[in-house]
């Protein structure tokens, strides 16, 4: 891998529409591949550590977090009560055999409803901001990914926050759309429009530092690997390695913020099944 490679086809500028299409496709593909793994993970967690009444847990599909609240040891989330599984492979086999293969994609629709717009806004804003900042920051252009990642995450979280609050309410309590509409209208009447952004602060505490560190280390790592292997453009292996290492580092550093976010959003034991 000592020979220098270059792209035979010059790369043109990517338009915002192309970035939106790419981001949307990535969100859908990620959800399709990761959701079965999360369904199995939660079944195993629920089996080994039964959730008591009023407690909540975080369902993460790789794109979004879902706060689910339990009542009487059984969650009102979309998946069924757990069976007896001896391991990951056993869980896959028994879920498919007893409930059908479609059960592995339980919760995919609400995941896509939130993940697709959030991902499109986030990645499109990041790409556009990063390109502009690199031109304007001059010698400090290396810090453009850090700033662009932080700003893009703030914008994405702010736009999606009301929808995430409504989705969380639907997951935490079984109710009709009419009942949900009445609850939202009551919150707006009593607390104003700011009530729709409840939980926004704890979300930013975790997501903004993660996004800033991820993109900064990702771009730095990718450039270093290209220089090390004497490549002009990053290959798939270089991009994958840089992303994996950067994501792992950012996750470890921001884990305390994630704990704070979960504690703030999860209801106390004495206040069961209520997230709004």
Summarize the SSE layout with pairings.
Blueprint: H1 16-48, E1 56-60, E2 65-71, E3 74-75, H2 88-99, H3 108-137, H4 144-172, H5 177-191, H6 200-228, H7 236-265
Antiparallel strand pairs: 1-2, 2-3
Query: Sheet bearing the most strands, described?
Result: 3 strands, antiparallel
Radius of gyration: 21 Å
- Percent helix, as a range, is 55-70%
Sheet with most strands: strand arrangement: 1-2-3
Strand content: 5-15%
Uncertain spans, ≥5 residues at pLDDT below 50? 1-12, 71-82, 266-276
Question: Can you put this structure into words, describing what you see?
Answer:
The model is unreliable at 1-12, 71-82 and 266-276 (pLDDT under 50). Helix 1 (16-48) packs across helix 3. It is globular, with a radius of gyration of 21 Å. Helices cover 64% and strands 5% of the residues. It has 276 residues and is mainly alpha-helical.
Short description:
With 276 residues, the chain is mainly alpha-helical. It has one domain (16-265): Mitochondrial carrier fold (Alpha/alpha barrel), CATH 1.50.40.
Features:
globular; three-stranded antiparallel sheet; mainly alpha; Mitochondrial carrier fold; single chain; 276 residues; 5% strand; disordered C terminus; 64% helix
């Amino acid at each position: 891998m000592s020979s220098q490679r270059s792209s035979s086809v010059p790369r043109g500028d990517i338009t915002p529409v192309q970035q939106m299409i790419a981001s949307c496709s990535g969100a859908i593909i990620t959800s399709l591949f990761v959701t079965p793994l999360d369904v199995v993970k939660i079944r195993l967690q629920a089996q080994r550590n039964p959730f008591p009444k009023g407690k909540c847990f975080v369902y993460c599909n790789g794109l979004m977090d879902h706060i689910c609240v339990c009542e009487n040891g059984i969650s009102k989330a979309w998946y069924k009560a757990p069976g007896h599984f001896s391991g990951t492979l056993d869980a896959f086999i028994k879920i498919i055999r007893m409930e059908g293969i479609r059960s592995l994609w339980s919760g995919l629709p609400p995941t896509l409803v939130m993940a697709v717009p959030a991902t499109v806004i986030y990645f499109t804003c990041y790409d556009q901001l990063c390109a502009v900042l690199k031109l304007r920051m001059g010698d400090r252009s290396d810090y453009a990914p850090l700033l662009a990642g932080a700003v893009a995450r703030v914008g994405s979280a702010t736009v999606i926050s009301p929808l995430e609050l409504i989705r969380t309410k639907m997951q935490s309590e079984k109710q009709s759309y009419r009942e949900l509409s009445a609850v939202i209208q009551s919150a707006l009447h009593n607390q104003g429009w700011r009530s729709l952004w409840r939980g926004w602060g704890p979300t930013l505490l975790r997501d903004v530092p993660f996004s800033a560190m991820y993109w900064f280390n990702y771009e730095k790592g990718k450039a270093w690997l290209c220089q090390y292997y004497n490549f002009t453009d990053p290959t798939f292996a270089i991009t994958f390695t840089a992303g994996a290492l950067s994501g792992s580092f950012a996750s470890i550093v921001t884990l305390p913020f994630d704990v704070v976010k979960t504690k703030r959003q999860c209801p106390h034991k004495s206040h069961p099944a209520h997230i709004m």
